[in-house]
Amino acid sequence: MEYVEKRVAQEAAKGAEATNSLFTPLNLMLLSLFLYTVYSFVKPQAPAALPKEEPAVVFKTFTPRTLLPFNGENNMPVYLAVRGRVFDVTRGRNFYGPGGPYANFAGRDASRGLACGSFDEEMLTKDLGGPLDTLADLGRDELEALQGWEERFSEKYLVVGKLVAEEKE
Ligand code: HEM
């Protein structure tokens, strides 16, 4: 009888050992991984945020005079014109904004200056009420350089309008 009791006690101890061995560090890690995976499937998803709508671009007609205030001063955007197309270069405010290296082009027809690689005052249309610069006297290299700039601007900036000469009464 004593033998039977001893065996029963032995078997009970074995069972406890088996239960203990379930809680090994590895099993606990696997369990937490499993619970985490389940949780990540079940947890409520944050509603997908809609992308912010870009402000609508209103295509406008500018003359050299009405383009002038768009030079980045007084919190104005920065525009410049190249061969009749007005680009919003506000993103490039560091280049064209007040104090920037190319601020001379802000609010102006920059075609001649870009073509000739010059910041000289005479590159800019002097008579804001007069005809636009036809660039008729420029050579091939200059026109090619200008086209290069235009391509760069088209990739980087939005066209917000066209530049025309002021109408004469
Ligand atoms: C000493 C000569 C010059 C140096 C060291 C210089 C330097 C630079 C640098 C570092 C950039 C920035 C490029 C980028 O991050 O995309 C740049 C852009 C530019 N440069 Fe110059 N530059 C010089 C002459 C000129 C000249 C002569 C012109 C035209 C008259 C010019 C017009 C521009 C324009 C329009 C941009 C593009 C800005 C934009 O992406 O909106 N640069 N220049």
TrEMBL record:
- Membrane spanning stretches: 22-42
Recorded GO cellular component terms are:
endoplasmic reticulum; membrane
Q: Does the keyword Hydrolase apply?
A: no
Q: Report the subcellular localization.
A: Endoplasmic reticulum
Question: Known InterPro entries for this protein?
Answer: Cyt_B5-like_heme/steroid-bd, Cyt_B5-like_heme/steroid_sf, MAPR/NEUFC/NENF-like
Q: Where does the Cytochrome b5 heme-binding domain start and stop, copy by copy?
A: 62-164
Pfam hit, one: Cyt-b5
Q: Which PANTHER family match?
A: MEMBRANE-ASSOCIATED PROGESTERONE RECEPTOR COMPONENT-RELATED, NEUDESIN
Full protein name: Cytochrome b5-like heme/steroid binding domain-containing protein
Organism the protein comes from: Lasiosphaeria miniovina
